[in-house]
Design goal:
With about 150 residues, the chain is an all-alpha fold. It has five helices and no strands.
Amino acid sequence: MLATEILTKDHKEALNMIDQLEGADENSSTHVATFEKLHDALDVHMQAEEEIYYPALARHEEFSDLLEENIPEHESVKESLAQMSELDPGTDEFQELLTEMKAAIEMHATNEEDNIFPESIEVLGRDEIEALGDEIEQLKGTSGMSHSAKV
């Protein structure tokens, strides 16, 4: 599977889990479990981008600024996840952080899916993007997740 397809699926599944958490008004075990899945999925997704996908792109001039632009976005999401881990999903503070994180992820996903992913296939070629997808699959396999796992 192409790396871009895996990463796009990750974006959609993360946003779906965020939707499930939005408006939580109680600290139910379902909400806590959904947040834990979201946290784990985003950690693996960001690791895949930072360690596999972005470095492959950064070797090409067209993507030289990619790491400088996207790593700070990841850091912001990691900070939000850390703060949210200390809170109950039903609290106003959790919900505010969730709203901010959702907006950041939507913006990040739109930029990647509309701009970076199509250009990466054009510049690197489908074979290399598929090889990167294989690496991402391996990473997800060692972390206990598959690309079809609810991210």
